[in-house]
Amino acid sequence: MTAVAPPPEHSQRLKVWASYAGVWPKLAVGFGVLAGILLIAQAWWLASILNAVLFEHAKLADLLTGFAGLLLIFFLRAAFTWAIDQAAFQGALQVKLQVRELLYSKVQSLGPAWLSEERSGAVMSTLSDGVEQLEAYYARYLPAMQLSVYIPLLILLVVFSQDRISGLVLMLTAPLIPLFMMLIGKGTEQRNQRQWQQLSRMSAHFLDVIQGLSTLKLFNASRREAQAIGEVSEQYRQSTMSVLRVAFLSSFTLEFFASVSIAVVAVLIGFRLYWGEMTFFAGFLVLLLAPEFYLPLRQLGAQYHARMQALGVVASLLDILEVPATTPAQTVAAWAGLHEQTIQLRHIDFYYPDGRLALRDFSLKIAAKQSLALVGASGAGKSTVLQLLLKFTEPQAGEILVGATPLQQIARQVWHKQIAWLPQRAQVFALSVADNIRLGSPASLEAIKQAAKAAQAQAFIEQLPHAYDTLLGEAGQGLSGGQRQRIALARVFLKAAPLIILDEATAHLDRETETLIQEAIQQLKGQHTIVMIAHRLATIQSADCIAFMQEGQVLAYGTHAELLQSCVPYQTMVKAYQEQGL
Predict the structure, then answer these.
(1) Helix and strand tally (H, E) in the chain?
(2) Quick one: which of 11, 206, 278, 491 is 20 to 30 A from 374 by CA?
(3) What is the distance of C-alpha 297 from the center of its chain?
(4) Residue 1's pLDDT is what?
């Protein structure tokens, strides 16, 4: 199969990212050049000492200065080698930090709506392992590429000053190594890209299996999924081995040409020494420098695989970075905030990425400091309305007005300061209880306790081993669903935002916990604008206004009593809830 060359923008993007490394690559190359000069000095000094011993009958006392100089060169070369590694690593680290920051910022700007359409494992693999794959390219390949020019050139100048024939041999054979390196290396491009795609798919599948392990156990499907993971792993192993085979072939070819070239130089020097056409000093110096002449080229060949690896992964990084983001042409310079302002959704059209219609000519008015319940069958568009209000996504048509200001012109981070959100399943992090309630906001412990008390969470928190300092497990491990919801509700009370969005906050909870949360939410009424999706009759009845939705539109709007009188589908829904005990 013919290898497909990577698009030019992939190589160009790697060059652009190299600027993030700052001065570190230049320092690495500078240290490498100094190490190369010391290498030449070492060979010169060693040849001089040996020539003095063999042909000038020098004594040990006469050579002490030479040996001391050699020892100093050894230490300096070791120091420069260490400095090269450190500078190259720091440069690669800066690139990784900047690229990862770009990716995180992009994912953050795209929002949860985009993330929900992607496989979590693939995204995580790209953000973590994908960025790590760049390290070898910036830390080893780029410095090696420059040093493969400077150091051989320096050595070539010294060799030409001692023996032109050997210099011509080195000069003519040197291009063969990078030529064959590129010819063989090209064959790994497609393999590297295919290997990275397999790794992303395997990571995504493995994460899905881990997250759904309890479900797989209950349905006796865990063995089948384990077998599937084994098959995917075997495919990845074979892909890895195919890449390694080409890499080993490349290394063998480079070593072969370098060894043959050194042998040619050695044979020519041997004959001319025998015929007396060159001095021992010149011949020995050239023999010492010949392997070092090819060493940077061989190192570049060994690191060429790092370039193929980087090109293989850059496509996945660009898949995230180049997702078009809906950003407003201009934002409001100074926005007064949401207090006492009405929110209006006017003639909204929204389509899912697959083309399905979620909202069609949707209009709704949300009065300040009133509670509004969105009700209707699954698929009516309720969650889409919340996504729009949360500014996680943008409508394809229509506008959302906050007072007289279009929501699109309000910066997302500014708008989010005006919102508190309680989702159906709240996320609890592996932090202390206090930090989970605070969630990055500067708040005193007393304020946190007041928020927890308002959210009906104080009682169970104080029963924990260290109360508010108790460290929680991943995803709130050790807490019940109701306890996690009450901690999330405490965040809402602590933030005290003008707009509170509740996305089925009491779903999947027992009656007692649901009652506690409902009582807590009642404290918010009249002080904040509340928009909620409700599937519990008690929640619906407690709302100031109800918007009954059907097929992406508001079919009826009013109080519970008004809709019971005027809307037959609403009557049917309420009756069904009563029969089910909801």
Answers:
(1) 23, 10
(2) 491
(3) 33
(4) 35
User: What is the residue-wise DSSP string for 268-308?
Assistant: HHHHHHHTT-S-HHHHHHHHHHHHHHHHHHHHHHHHHHHHH
Q: Supply the mean pLDDT for the chain.
A: 79
What is the bridge-based pairing of β-strands 343-351 and 357-366?
Answer: antiparallel
Other Cβ atoms less than 10 A from the Cβ of 179: the count is: 11
In CATH, what is the architecture of 343-580? 3-Layer(aba) Sandwich (3.40)
Burial of 75 (0-12, 13-18, 19+ CB in 10 A): exposed
Percent of the chain with pLDDT over 70: 82
312 close to 193: Cβ distance less than 8 angstroms:
yes
Q: Could you tell me what percent of the chain has a pLDDT over 90?
A: 6
SS (H, E, C) 51-120: HHHHHCCCCHHHHHHHHHHHHHHHHHHHHHHHHHHHHHHHHHHHHHHHHHHHHHHHHHHHHHHHHCCCCH
Flag whether pLDDT at 127 surpasses 70: yes
pLDDT band of residue 118 (cuts 50, 70, 90) is low
pLDDT tens digits, one per residue of 515-538:
777 777 777 777 888 888 877 777
Q: Check: CB of residue 534 under 8 Å from CB of residue 526.
A: no
**Highest mean pLDDT of the ranges 244-253, 256-265, 535-544:** 256-265
List C-alpha distances in Å: 206 to 95, 199, 231, 312, 355.
29, 10, 12, 21, 29
> What pLDDT sits at residue 3?
40
Residue 154: what pLDDT?
92
Token pair 């493995």 is found at 206
Closest to 484 (Cα-Cα) out of 513, 511, 462 = 513
299: number of Cβ within 10 Å: 19
Distances (CA, A) of 320 to 105, 214, 258, 501: 11, 31, 42, 29
Q: For residue 457, which of 582, 472, 194, 202 has the smallest C-alpha distance?
A: 472
Q: Quick one: DSSP state of residue 432?
A: B
pLDDT tens string 441-497: 778 888 888 888 888 888 888 888 888 888 887 766 777 777 888 888 888 888 888
Distances (CA, A) of 11 to 137, 246, 314, 388, 429: 11, 21, 9, 38, 39
Instruction: Return the HEC string of 154-201.
Output: HHHHHHHHHCHHHHHHHHHHCCHHHHHHHHHHHHHHHHHHHHHHHHHH
Matching fold, domains 8-321 and 343-580:
no
Cα dist from 312 to 316, 326, 573, whole Å: 8, 28, 54
d(CA 419, CA 404): 18
State the CATH class of domain 8-321.
mainly alpha
Q: Residue 437 in contact with residue 502, Cβ under 8 Å?
A: no
pTM, 2 dp: 0.68
pLDDT tens-digit map of 411-426: 877 888 888 888 877 7
- Reading the block at residue 265, the tokens are 């130089």
How many C-beta atoms surround the C-beta of residue 21 within 10 A? 24
